[in-house]
Design a protein that fits this description.
The protein has 339 residues and is an alpha/beta fold. The chain has 2 domains: 1-44, no CATH class; 46-274, Alpha-Beta Barrel (TIM Barrel). Helix content is 45%, strand content 13%. The protein has helices at 8-14, 33-43, 66-76, 98-111, 127-139, 159-172, 183-186, 192-198, 214-224, 239-244, 259-270, 274-294, 296-306, 323-334, and strands spanning 23-26, 29-32, 49-51, 53-54, 83-86, 117-121, 144-148, 177-181, 204-209, 230-233, 249-251. A hairpin with a 2-residue loop joins strand 1 and strand 2. It is globular and about 45 Å long. Homotetramer.
Length: 339
């Protein structure tokens, strides 16, 4: 399969571009040698660890409040996170303008402690818009782009369509790319075959999968690990299960509130202390369900306020929780010893 890099900035990032750049054969296709060297360097980016997908703080008039974001990041910097995901689903990216999305990446990059990896959600519905957004987010300081599956014309989002989309985005991107599959929100999914094929691209280094199918996680790891591809769990509720089959890290909404506990679960899994890990995993399931499947971003923002962070309102049309929903969510945290 041919992966052609057309963007000059990508070429310079991947390796030294010269007038007589050497090439090599890959699968019957002649490829620039700088791409091969770039594959080795990008695949060495370590995604092992916990990444909270940061919510976007709004004022009561639904404008973005960057000061609250900086204050939240300052507190998260004290926790052992690998880095931050900016403009994932929990960032309400679908309700933001292009300019707001890019500026939020810039703010987090400036506020993050040294060494924190900044993963920016740059996915858009069209391939060209995704390429443009990815380049803007790279310029704003993103280290890695996380690209959600296009889904509006889901009836035509075939394996071939996904392959074409991700190949073009990754080949034009000046930073490495992570695939992002969240079927609960999009109604589409990336098959293991597509993930395995895309894992061979020199600029695609991993996937965040939020579906929670442990069998699929195991298959993805088995078919991609030889290329240095890394698999991330997309929720704290199934961390333990996916880690046992080879996932290296987690992007977890719950980490915005229970960051130390989620990081502890990660560490116990890596140390092979499975009995201790199982106890924490059990305690995290109900709170995690509360801030994701049951009450979503409005619930997450309420829970953030319980633990000293600014949650604030969501942007319309998302509505705040009812008092009854708040009580239900509080019970999920209290019954597991977190409040």
């Amino acid at each position: 399969m041919a992966f052609v890099v057309n963007n000059l900035r990508t070429l310079s990032k991947l390796g030294t571009l010269t007038a007589h750049q050497p090439t090599f054969r890959k699968g019957g296709v002649r490829v620039l040698a700088c791409v091969h060297r770039g594959m080795a360097s990008f695949k060495q980016i370590d995604l092992s660890g916990v990444f909270p997908p940061l919510p976007t703080p709004f004022n009561q008039d639904e404008t973005v409040n960057h000061e609250h974001l900086r204050n939240n990041v300052a507190k998260w910097n004290e926790i052992g996170f690998k880095g931050y995901v900016v403009q994932g689903s929990n960032g309400e990216y679908t309700y933001l303008s292009d300019e707001e999305r890019v500026e939020l990446v810039r703010t987090v990059k400036q506020a993050a402690a040294p060494g924190k990896l900044i993963i920016a959600g740059s996915g858009c519905e069209s391939t060209q818009a995704t390429i443009n957004m990815t380049q803007k987010m790279a310029e704003a300081g993103a280290d890695v782009a996380m690209v959600i599956t296009p889904y509006y014309f889901k009836g035509r989002m075939t394996n071939q369509a996904f392959m074409h989309h991700y190949e073009k985005v990754a080949s034009a991107s000046p930073i490495p790319v992570i695939l992002y599959s969240v079927p609960a929100n999009t109604g589409v999914d990336l098959s293991v075959d597509v993930v395995a094929a895309l894992s061979q691209h020199p600029n695609i280094i991993g996937i965040k999968d939020s579906a929670g199918d442990v069998t699929k996680f195991g298959s993805m790891v088995q078919r991609t690990e030889a290329s240095g591809f890394q698999v991330l769990a997309g929720s704290a509720s199934f961390m333990l299960g996916t880690y046992t089959v080879g996932a290296v890290g987690c992007v977890a909404a719950l980490a915005n509130t229970l960051g130390k506990e989620v990081c502890q679960l990660h560490s116990l899994c890596k140390e092979g202390k499975m009995e201790e890990a199982k106890k924490i995993q059990h305690r995290l399931i109900a709170p995690n369900s509360a801030v994701t499947r049951k009450f979503g971003v409005p619930g997450l923002k309420v829970a953030m306020s319980w633990f000293g962070y600014y949650g604030g309102p969501t942007r319309s049309p998302l509505l705040p929780l009812t008092p009854e929903e708040v009580d239900s969510m509080r019970a999920d945290f209290q019954s597991n010893g977190f409040l």
